[in-house]
Design a protein that fits this description.
Layout (H helix, E strand, L loop, with lengths): L1 H6 L9 H4 L2 H11 L3 E5 H7 L9 E5 L12 E8 L4 E7 L18 E5 L2 E3 L2 E6 L11 H6 L1 E4 L2 E12 L5 E6 L4 E3 L2 E3 L1 H12 L4 E8 L2 E9 L6 H9 L10 E5 L20 H4 L9 H14 L21 H11 L6 H7 L2 H21 L7 E2 L2 H12 L7 E8 L4 H14 L5 E5 L5 E5 L9 E3 L2 H8 L14 E8 L2 E9 L5 H15 L9 H11 L3 H14 L19 E8 L5 H9 L3 H17 L3 E8 L16 E8 L6 H17 L5 H5 L9 E5 L14 E4 L12 E8 L2 E9 L5 H20 L8 H8 L3
Parallel strand pairs: 1-2, 2-3, 14-15, 20-21, 26-28
Antiparallel strand pairs: 3-4, 5-6, 5-7, 7-9, 8-9, 9-10, 11-12, 13-14, 16-19, 17-22, 17-27, 18-19, 21-22, 23-29, 24-25, 28-29
Helix pairs in contact: 9-10, 9-12, 11-12, 14-16, 19-23, 20-21, 20-23
Length: 793
């Protein structure tokens, strides 16, 4: 710039460091020397804005991203260039304050373009340009190699700046490529978060840095200010300016920010805060509920890091809590009425205790006026979906959940009495569906329809004939949706169970059988709060949680065309069921290896493997599957039989630079956020049509009864004809754990897929899951490479 001004016959003035750092002296110098053109960094113009004027005609800003800079007294130019270019590449006269000021349009004297994933992009990417006179860095071969990219056989210089181009052709610098981080698959520039923080905190000395923690990207904000900011208020304020995934997890106040020799914040010196820096000032619990919650926080959170004590204002999620630990906290709390939502909304022992105690008081008042057990209730969205399928395929057994087991060590009459007792304990089994005056199907508790189970004495020959017709379609209205029978034959005692999926989910099976063994031993059964859960799901439809959940899912998944089905081999759906079972071998400590490396649960690992298999076989870069959350959101609900499940999406957007570590972090976050926003049934609302809503569904069936397991009353499953005449989805993948290992069970639409295609998908998914579980060094591997190694075709 100095040479340029001299070339034009102008006088160049270089201000001393002493003057430049003193606003009053600097303003006096400008006035005395009659300076009419000034070069400044963006951060300095705000410092000197009120002092500038006099003879100034224009200010050129360079070296930093410019925000909220404007003057009516003189022109301000935002100039963009690099040392290597030896000149400015573009410039923009600032006509108003911008949160992120444009740098102008493409360079006029050399080719300039945006580079993204190996190709030129019209919208977003790294700024690259043709520089025939810049050949590299002296004696720095590695840096020189990094500085250039070849596109269509031609070599271009990479500036390292990520920019986007709007519809008018204006370019906006988003940040440095080496500063960019991927959060939930989105490219995030810390400077954008810093700009929002400056507004919220009222200070210009802020920094945001990303850290890798258990395979996830963690954003941490640092600020220099006289007073400590209230974190809850800061998060709320940022939520109005930024999407959720851009809000930092930690906020740390520093007495002074570390600076480098150029006076800029030295980010490498900023470290992930220790636990003491994250915790709020200690406030001791006062009530019994507060004390219990503080103890629970410490117990659950100490599994991941050492925590000396928990105070009333310590944030569960900032201290490392997630959905799995939240469920652990619920299960261990013993606080009936404590819910998943109250933990997510409250976050601290003080606030959670307040929400819990308020809900207990409200429930007591409600119970005094209304008996929710005896009132008709709406169906959940998931129950409605099941009824839609049955209307689409009438008289089907696709939603029957049958089992015939030979049970040892029991007197058949005692088994029948215990079975009747367990059925009476679970209101979902004593529920009928009916149509109201408007033709809407509702559910109501109808214990009067139940008849006690009796022992049926049969010969072994008759039992063989009975087995052929045990599984039959259910009448969906005006009847109970279960069948339970006890057979006493010469070969042994047999128990037949069949439940309709609209009132019974996977976890219900284990709960039911556990309670049956308790009833046989005369152990009292814990009450089942089925109708309280149903009433809560009804109430949430008109709550802010519902609308917030809808906004979250739509922001996350809309705007992308996702492939959610394995591409069909045929195009002639006839609803012909096909099934495959595939053993999945893994090392004994496989999950323990991957837990630390990926941060994912077993469910998350299988979902990730399914997405990768779908992407590989479809050769698609944007894929989606669905998965199930068991829906038990309170301690008392852990004993509730019913269809409490929620179905959620999980998606994968593959780019050339996407790493497996970024995938693990993204899937973890999707599963976490789905549970947090589970008030909104995204899959049911987004895919309401039975056929169009068909997706690859992956569900890890943990907690299901293993009939070969260690039961007090041993049970041996007997094969029966289930008459399953249709596939629930085009492709369902269930993963079952037992003492003998893991099995992938694939149910598919045989009129859409060849058996070989489904088998290939299962083998590929199993291979991906095994590799993820047993290789703790996958984080830096590119996803494209990982897929090609397993599926080169």
């Amino acid at each position: 710039m100095i040479v340029g001004m001299l070339h034009l016959g102008k006088t160049s003035s270089i201000v001393s460091d002493v003057v430049a750092k003193n606003p009053a002296l600097f303003a006096e110098y400008l006035k005395k020397e009659k300076i009419d053109l000034l070069f400044l960094t963006a951060s300095l113009i705000k410092t000197f804005a009120s002092l500038l004027g006099h003879s100034l005609k224009a200010v050129y800003l360079c070296s930093e991203r410019v925000s909220d800079a404007y003057s009516s007294k003189f022109d301000i130019w935002n100039v963009y260039g690099n040392t290597e270019t030896m000149s400015s590449l573009s410039a923009f006269v600032i006509d108003k304050p911008y949160p992120n000021t444009p740098i102008g349009r493409d360079c006029g004297y050399t080719k300039m373009f945006l580079y993204d994933n190996g190709v030129e992009s019209e919208t977003e990417g790294e700024i690259c340009l043709e520089l025939p006179y810049f050949r590299g860095y002296l004696n720095q071969e590695t840096e020189t190699a990094k500085a250039f990219v070849t596109v269509n056989g031609k070599k271009y210089f990479r500036t390292g700046d990520i920019a986007r181009r709007d519809k008018d052709g204006l370019l906006y610098v988003l940040g440095r490529a080496d500063d960019m981080v991927k959060i939930n698959g989105n490219r995030v520039e810390p400077a954008e978060i810093e700009a929002a923080l400056k507004k919220v905190l009222g200070t210009n000395i802020v920094a945001v840095k990303a850290f890798d923690k258990l395979g996830k990207k963690i954003l941490c904000a640092y600020y220099q200010k006289e007073t400590v900011a209230d974190q809850t208020e800061v998060v709320a304020a940022l939520g109005r300016l930024l999407p959720t995934y851009m809000i930092p997890s930690f906020f740390v106040r520093l007495d002074s920010m570390p600076l480098n020799r150029n006076g800029k914040i030295d980010k490498p010196l900023l470290k992930l805060p220790e636990i003491a820096m994250i915790q709020a000032g200690y406030a001791s619990p006062q009530t019994e509920t507060e004390k219990k919650l503080c103890e629970l926080f410490k117990k659950v959170l100490s599994e991941n890091r050492e925590i000396e004590r928990i105070g009333l204002d310590d944030d569960f999620f900032l201290l490392g809590g997630d959905s799995l630990l939240t469920m652990r906290l619920l299960a261990d709390s013993g606080l009936n009425g404590l819910t998943l939502e109250s933990i997510y909304d409250g976050r601290t022992p003080r606030r959670i205790a307040e929400l819990y105690e308020n809900s207990v008081r409200e429930k007591k008042a409600l119970d005094a006026d209304v008996n929710t057990l005896m009132l008709p209730h709406e169906l959940s969205y998931e129950q409605i979906d099941i009824l839609k399928y049955e209307a689409y395929l009438p008289n089907t057994t696709m939603h029957n959940l049958p089992a015939l087991v030979k049970i040892s060590g029991v007197i058949p009459e005692k088994l029948a009495v215990a079975l009747s007792k367990v059925i009476r304990n679970h209101p979902a089994l004593l529920t009928k569906y009916f149509k109201d005056k408007d033709g809407v199907v509702r559910q109501v508790y109808s214990p009067d329809l139940m008849t006690d189970v009796v022992v049926e004495k049969v010969s072994d020959e008759d039992l063989e004939k009975i087995k052929e017709a045990l599984v039959q379609p259910f009448a969906l209205t005006e009847h109970l949706l279960y069948r339970c029978r006890v057979f006493d034959s010469p070969s042994g005692v047999y128990l037949f169970l069949d439940f309709h999926h609209a009132q019974f989910d996977g976890l219900s099976g284990a709960l039911f059988l556990n309670n049956l063994q308790k009833a046989l031993d005369g152990i009292p059964l814990a009450p089942d709060c089925y109708y309280d859960i149903i009433a809560n799901r009804e109430a949430v439809r008109n709550s802010t949680r519902f609308t917030e959940g809808k906004a979250y899912f739509e922001n996350r998944y809309k705007g992308t065309t996702w492939e959610s089905k394995l591409r069909y081999d045929y195009d002639n759906p006839k609803n012909l069921k096909g099934s495959l079972e595939m053993p999945f071998s893994r090392s004994e400590n496989a999950y323990e290896i991957t837990k630390d490396a990926t941060g994912l649960s077993r469910n998350g690992i299988y979902i990730t493997a399914g997405l990768l298999a779908l992407a590989a076989m479809n050769r698609s870069k944007n894929v989606m599957v669905t998965w199930f959350f068991n829906g038990r959101k309170s301690p008392e609900s852990l004993n509730s039989v019913g269809a409490h499940f929620y179905e959620f999406p999980a998606a994968l957007k593959i780019t050339e630079s996407l790493t497996m570590g970024e995938v693990f972090a993204d899937i973890y976050d999707q599963l976490e956020k789905a549970v947090e926003h589970s008030a909104y049934p995204y899959v049911s609302m987004e895919f309401p049509n039975v056929v169009e809503g068909d997706t690859v569904c992956i569900y890890y069936q943990y907690g299901l009864p293993d009939f070969d397991g260690d039961w007090k009353y041993p049970m041996e499953e007997v094969e029966i004809d289930s008459h399953f005449d249709a596939a629930l989805n085009a492709l369902d993948v269930a993963i079952y754990d037992s003492k003998d290992g893991t099995t992938l069970a694939l149910d598919y639409e045989a009129s859409l897929y060849k058996k070989e295609s489904v088998e290939c998908f299962g083998k590929l998914m199993g291979a991906f899951a095994k590799e993820i579980m047993e290789n703790k060094n996958l984080a830096n591997k590119l996803v494209t490479e990982f897929i090609d190694e397993r599926f080169p075709g």
